[in-house]
């Protein structure tokens, strides 16, 4: 070939190349179908690559499932022939229930009753048990829980037995003995229990399920510890998403109760409550369901704790301090006050703590409201609920009560003392809490340390030393209702009447070994006591607050009355001619029935019989030191007018109108002041401060003869219905107002005398009616004598 030919061929080749590149070559058009096949081949190659990638990813997922959840790929076996089914680890082929039981039996295990996990019973829990070697009851205990599922695809033949796959299993070991008995064992006890696990004999499904996320079960065992029938066990949760069983927590209940799901907070999910109450000491463990980042089981139980406080507030922190010491109701009361004052809503954690406190407070309040036959239980329930004052009343009600409460405090293992000290820390000025702290110290540490504490306490806070000391004296045998000193002077006021017959069995003599005997030379009087001074204050009838102790009641009541030091008394009688006759008597017996206090007294001579007139005062019975008579020298109204003219000017018109109102004098017109002054100016009166305001009152006794002079008649008052045949007393304030009116009292008592009852206090009025005597003292609040 020549060079020319070569150049021509090269030129043609270049032209054809350019045409192919431009898509205009006839050769390119002719071979177009061949290019289309190449595109399909490329697509097929892409699909092969995609499928291969899918297989790789699927294989990787299958590998992960085989590692994390081998039972999650069971569904593949229903699409594979039996020879090609996937064998996962050491997994056994599906078995019938009988085969499962037989297989366990060969291993020395026992198959318990199945517990369905669904309505169709395709899924169930099987407890696996062992036999205890030495046992009297509940001889089988659980060592494992297994989850079985109905094997799919193997029940196609009619009448074929159901076969089950093992999905999961959980080894079970009971809680340690030390954990189970911990709530009922004192911290300083030598019997704290061992680390030996206790057997679990029962598995059950909770009737109330907190949510749809999984299923909750309990394992239970029982243990007798002293008088406590303890229930204990585990809380188990099953997560169906991953076929996973998990032990969530261990529990113990000295009350012998199963944990329960109950809603006590504001959440939509119920809480798990474990009752660990021992006797009257409440303790409830409360757990909330919470989320957690865990693939196999994204659920956990979180306890509601009182520590740390969920709110940075001093009152809130004080309330939680009280609650942690066991004073649930005082803590609740403090929180309620805080909630009323707070404008912002509380955090959820604070609300949960408050709900936990309320749960315990409901329990302690119910216990405190119970009618206890045992004094110790009654006082313990009130102290646990923070009812300090009510508990003190029970303590001081009788010597027996004091002794029982002292025994209770002596046996305290620290729980009551912790409550008292915590309450005193939060409320240092609380008198009742101070008293309980002193009582506890007296019993635990003795008198010296208690007195030292009281002295120091009185320097820091408001402390009623007399109040607390009288309670402490009861612990030393001074059973005078916490008030009466062991030795005090007898101060008794009452009315007397002679008696001809007595029943010695009805009276408490000073010495029960010497019975009462009636002799011919003795005259007997019965004295009904109206008032007596028990060493620190006066008590008035009825004496319903006094309760006689069962042991040595005579010693108690004689000491109350001061008769153990002085048993002499005087009885005064008004004779028919208005004269007084007095005789000395000796107290021989005491009687207290239905709040009525009587004395049996003997004398060597009989007093002259008093007048039978209903207007005659009853015989007055007094011990020597009972009263200090107040007898201001009488002066006339005219003399008072010279000293206090305004008082008398306001007084006389009121006096006249009052006498008109009660029908003592005639007429409806009030005379002028000058005329009244002329008619009444010579009347004797007494001027004395009866109200304690340093402004003397005017005491006026008006006899029927005096009123007759106003009517210019002789004899008695004209109005027979008024029956004012005895002198009546009026007391006028410095303003002229009548503050005591003997005419207006229906029972017609009469002022017998004015007496000083307490040093530094205003005098009292000793008044009498036809039956007895009593005192009336000025009440500044009600502005009257009571």
Polypeptide structure, described:
This protein has 786 residues and is of the alpha+beta class. Among the domains are: 97-171; 370-474, no CATH class; 492-626; 635-785, no CATH class. 32% of the residues lie in helices and 24% in strands. It has a six-stranded antiparallel β-barrel. Strands 1, 2, 3, 4 and 5 form a five-stranded antiparallel β-sheet that branches. Strands 22-23-24-25-26 form a five-stranded antiparallel β-sheet. Helix 6 (314-324) runs antiparallel to helix 7, helix 8 runs antiparallel to helix 9 and helix 9 (375-384) crosses helix 11 (399-410). It is elongated and about 150 Å long. It starts with a helix and ends with a strand. 29% of the residues are buried.
Whole-number average pLDDT?
Answer: 81
Number of helices: 20
Q: Which structural category do the helix and sheet elements fall into? A: alpha+beta
Helical percent range? 25-40%
Q: What's the N-to-C terminus distance?
A: 158 Å
Strand residues, percent: 15-25%
The number of E-state strands comes to 31
Indicate the overall shape.
elongated
Show unreliable segments.
Answer: 1-8, 20-34, 713-724
Sheet bearing the most strands, described?
A: 6 strands, antiparallel, barrel
Strand order of the largest sheet: 14-15-19-18-17-20
What is the CA-atom radius of gyration, in angstroms?
49 Å
């Amino acid at each position: 070939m020549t060079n020319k030919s070569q150049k021509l061929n090269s030129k043609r080749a270049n032209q054809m190349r350019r045409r192919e590149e431009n898509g205009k070559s006839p050769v390119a058009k002719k071979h177009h179908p061949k290019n289309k096949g190449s595109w399909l081949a490329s697509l097929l190659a892409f699909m092969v690559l995609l499928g291969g990638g899918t297989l790789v990813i699927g294989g990787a997922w299958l590998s992960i499932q085989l590692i994390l959840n081998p039972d999650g790929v069971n569904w593949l076996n229903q699409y594979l022939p039996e020879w090609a089914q996937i064998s996962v680890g050491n997994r056994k082929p599906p078995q019938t229930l009988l085969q499962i039981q037989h297989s366990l039996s060969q291993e020395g295990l026992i198959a318990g009753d199945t517990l369905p996990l669904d309505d169709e019973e395709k899924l169930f829990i099987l407890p696996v048990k062992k036999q205890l070697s030495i046992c009297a009851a509940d001889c089988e205990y659980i060592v494992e829980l297994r989850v079985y599922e109905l094997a799919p695809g193997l029940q196609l033949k009619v009448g074929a037995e159901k076969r089950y796959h093992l999905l999961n299993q959980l080894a079970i070991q009971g809680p340690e003995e030390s954990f189970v008995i911990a709530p009922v064992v004192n911290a300083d006890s030598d019997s704290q229990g061992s680390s030996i696990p206790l057997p679990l004999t029962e598995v059950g499904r909770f009737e109330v399920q907190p949510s749809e996320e999984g299923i909750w079960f309990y394992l239970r065992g029982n243990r007798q510890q002293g008088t406590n029938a303890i229930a204990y066990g585990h809380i188990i949760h099953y997560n169906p998403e991953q076929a996973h069983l998990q032990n969530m927590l261990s529990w113990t209940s000295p009350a012998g109760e199963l944990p329960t799901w109950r809603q006590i907070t504001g959440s939509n999910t119920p809480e798990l409550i474990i009752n660990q109450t021992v006797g009257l000491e409440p303790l409830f463990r409360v757990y909330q369901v919470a989320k957690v980042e865990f693939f196999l089981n994204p659920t956990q139980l979180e306890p509601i704790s009182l520590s740390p406080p969920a709110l940075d507030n001093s009152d809130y922190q004080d309330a939680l301090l009280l609650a942690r010491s066991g004073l649930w109701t005082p803590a609740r009361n403090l929180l309620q006050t805080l909630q009323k004052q707070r404008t912002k809503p509380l955090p959820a954690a604070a609300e949960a703590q408050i709900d936990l406190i309320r749960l315990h407070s409901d329990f302690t309040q119910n216990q405190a409201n119970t009618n206890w036959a045992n004094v110790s239980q009654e006082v313990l329930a009130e102290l646990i609920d923070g009812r300090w004052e009510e508990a003190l009343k029970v303590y001081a009600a009788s010597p027996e009560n004091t002794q029982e409460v002292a025994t209770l405090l002596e046996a305290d293992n620290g729980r009551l003392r912790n409550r008292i000290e915590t309450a005193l820390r939060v409320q240092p000025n609380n008198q009742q809490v101070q008293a309980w702290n002193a009582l506890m110290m007296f019993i635990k540490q003795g008198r010296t340390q208690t007195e030292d504490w009281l002295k120091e306490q009185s320097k820091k806070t408001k402390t009623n030393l007399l109040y607390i000391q009288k309670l402490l004296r009861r612990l030393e045998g001074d059973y005078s209702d916490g008030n009466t000193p062991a030795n005090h002077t007898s101060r008794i006021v009452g009315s007397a009447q002679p008696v001809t017959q007595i029943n010695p069995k009805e009276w408490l003599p000073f010495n029960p070994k010497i019975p009462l005997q009636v002799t011919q030379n003795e005259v007997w009087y019965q004295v009904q006591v109206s008032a007596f001074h028990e060493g620190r204050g006066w008590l008035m009838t009825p004496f319903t607050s006094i309760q006689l102790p069962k042991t040595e009641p005579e010693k108690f009541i004689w000491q109350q009355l001061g008769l153990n030091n002085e048993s002499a008394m005087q009885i005064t009688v008004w004779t028919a001619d208005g004269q007084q006759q007095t005789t000395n008597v000796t107290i021989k017996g005491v009687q207290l029935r239905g709040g009525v206090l009587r004395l049996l007294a003997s004398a060597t001579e009989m007093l002259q019989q008093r007048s039978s007139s209903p207007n005659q005062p009853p015989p007055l019975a007094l011990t020597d030191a009972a009263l200090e008579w107040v007898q201001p020298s009488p002066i006339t109204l005219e003399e008072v007018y010279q000293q206090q003219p305004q008082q008398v000017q306001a007084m006389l018109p009121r006096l006249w109108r009052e006498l008109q109102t009660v029908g003592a004098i005639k007429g409806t017109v009030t005379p002028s002041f000058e005329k009244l002054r002329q008619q009444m100016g010579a009347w004797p009166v007494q001027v004395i401060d009866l109200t304690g305001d340093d402004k003397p009152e005017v005491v006026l006794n008006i006899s029927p003869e005096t009123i007759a002079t106003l009517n210019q008649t002789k004899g008695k008052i004209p109005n027979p219905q008024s029956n004012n045949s005895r002198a009546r007393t009026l007391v006028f304030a410095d303003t002229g107002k009548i503050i005591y009116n003997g005419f207006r009292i229906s029972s017609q008592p009469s002022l017998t005398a004015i007496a000083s009852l307490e040093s530094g206090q205003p005098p009292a009025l000793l008044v009498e009616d036809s039956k007895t005597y009593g005192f009336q003292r000025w009440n500044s609040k009600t502005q009257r004598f009571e």
